[in-house]
Amino acid sequence: MRSVSVDLNHDASLLIDIPDALCERDKVKFTVHTKTTLTAFQKPEISVPRQHEDFIWLHDTLVETEDYAGLIIPPAPPKPDFESPREKMHKLGEGEATMTKEEYTKMKQELEAEYLAVFKKTVQVHEVFLQRLSSHPILSKDRNFQIFLEYDQDLSVRRKNAKEMFGGFFKNMVKSADEVLISGIKEVDDFFEQEKTFLLDYYSKIKDSTAKAEKMTRTHKMFILFPFRHMEKLSDLFEKLRKVEGRVASDQELKLTELLRYYMRDIQAAKDLLYRRARALVDYENSNKALDKARLKSKDIPQAEEHQQQCLQKFDKLSESGKKELTSFKGRRVVAFRKNLVEMAELEIKHAKNNVALLQGCIELLKNN
Amino acid sequence: MASGTSRNPPPFPTNDETGEGLSNLADGDSDEGEDIFVSNSMSPGVCQPVRGGELPAGDASSHTSAQSNGVHSDEDNDLFSDAQLSTDKSGSSSQKELSSSSSSRPISSFSPRPAAMPTTSLEQLEEEEDKDTFDVDVAVTNPEKVGDGMNAYVAYRVSTRTSLPMFKNRTFSVRRRFSDFLGLYEKLSVKQSLHGCIIPLPPEKSVVGMTKVKVGMDDPSSVEFVERRRAALERYLQRVVAHPLLIQDPDVREFLEKEDLPRASNTQALSGAGFLKMINKASEAVNKMTIKMNESDTWFEDKLQEVENEEQQLRKLHAVVDSLVNHRKELCGNTAVFAKSMAMLGNSEDNTALSRALSQLAEVEDKMEQLHQEQASSDFFIFAEVLADYIRLLGAVRGCFDQRMRAWQRWQEAQSSLQKKREVEAKLLWANKPDKLQQAKEEITEWEAKVTQYERDFDRIGMTVRKEVLRFEKEKTKDLKTQIIKYLESMLQSQQRLIKFWEAFLPEAKAIA
Known about the structure:
With 369 residues, chain A is mainly α.
């Protein structure tokens, strides 16, 4: 999972990981572990318990921070979703009466493994979020980030206050309108013109691919629950084949589906940046109009001029930072895709060779018997 | 197709298909120069039911083997039991041979024994298997639509290749339609089933399938339907010609050889399903019998139970394979959709190398879809269809057991009729009515003959059923094993192609920069 965003967690001045997590009913409690040489922190090594909602709070505060308008804010980790394995566990419980003890135990073990896989995935996606922050030159210095890492009390109070302050204002505001806005403005900068076109198109394609990949992976995983209990000596072979198939499915999910999912969200974050810049441009254009009006009326010219300057500065800052961010994003994306596609191909080959060996062995056995 | 060297060709089927099984043992296979009758009784496979001192003296081995048959034949059902079959000719080892009969020897499709009861030793049968394969090969190919509209039908080419002299040529082919196959089945089942033979079953009729075909043979579901039917008809014929008795039946020969076959009428009445229904009804009747048969040897009871269990097992397995097929088809569809989406993404990608890699990935996924599709077909044709065949065949096997029961019933009823006639005679003697007495004596003679006849019938049917069941089990084991190997080999091929696809993709992925 770390390979969705490579080059993280290399800087020894701030190392973050999630060494373990507890699952209590619906809630997952992550242990966030930090090792740092930075003096800004109170202690060189800290461990704190955090919930998913804390991560969301952190993400939202970063998004709402004006100063970071020119940055791609790493996408928030998705909520832990244990629905699928839980549902299957439930079905297994219902079907218990019709199975032999052995079958039941086996299926239960497999479902527990699936549960564990979901668990691991959610831990890693939360971990990547933090590591993206820690490896970002500006975001790593954020005050709230520091609080998140070292505040040894429950963050839920802060979370509530934040909600009241912003009311999810920015996020809820114009998710639907941003496409229109972004595509509507007249772009003077070639770089952003290209980026805009590219990102809008790429986003819709990757969203589609993600959905189709998810569907494919889900079907693939169904083969896991295919007990081939019959035919005595063959059942052993089919068991093994099934396990390999299961690994193929979950590797495919990790390397391909997760990759697409992650970058879909990352591209959304990049689009958000474009949106903020577009807004700033609109503000600048509006301030220009206001200045012209002021000059016409010969009233409040200095304020208008200052306002216009501020808007311009803001816009320039966003453009400059945005360009940097988008360029490094490109590189990051290409590297991550490469790594994952290579790993996926290698795993497919490995599993298929495994299957070949299993099948050849069994065919030999049958022919000689 | 090597034919046995020291074997006499079969005589043309004579009319002595009834009755005197024991008397025809003299000819045929005497490889060892032994008196067939003696060696016959030493083979556990076709041991006559132990009753009232009929065994030749000094044959303790067969006596014990008769009772232990129920145990040994368990292992017949395990497809892959480890023991090897040996062609040791000594009588004592023939018991071992029975218990390790899951070897992969091809079964002789053709025994030189007369059409009447082939009661040569199992040992000798197995020897022949060693030497020879099928002497008759059949294939069903080239389905062609004949005619138009609702009267259209599909004609298949039935090709035969054989070295048997009873056929006019060595290779020949004819055109047959589905109802011809059903007609053959009907003729055979009417004739042979009464003797306890297991008649192979033709595929089911299908109004829906055929209607689609009549409309047009081009769409994929019609193509699949016709292919399914063709394969099923081929398997059906292969089983028929593999049966040592049926291959000698003139109707079978006519079916294979004759240019123009008269249209089979009345196939409405007896399709495979119809006949099975009849069998099931008969089973119910048998179950309601008040006089339970007193089996001196439990072989029949045990075997019937085994057959019923196995039928259940295969049904379950068939259900699993069926859902496997459906899932694979679903995966197929999802993969195809994903491949298209990935191709679009590749087009969108502005990094050249990554764009190319994504397009390549789309192609790989497309090839995977094809692989899944082919694997689903293989799941289906190799596995599921054959399982379905055997589920139905096991039903037919059960039918044979019922026929034996009915033969027993007939015998018992004749015996009680005879008893009644004797009572009548006794009364008449006492009442002193000489003219009626004569008639009574005649009736007694008549019924005594019937009792003897029915008893012989019952014995004979018992022997046939035994032999048939063992032959069937061997064939089934061999067939299923062959199918499983074929299935595994197709999976193996699939995986090897998969490796090639991904190995071709890998350098593209590594080239991303």
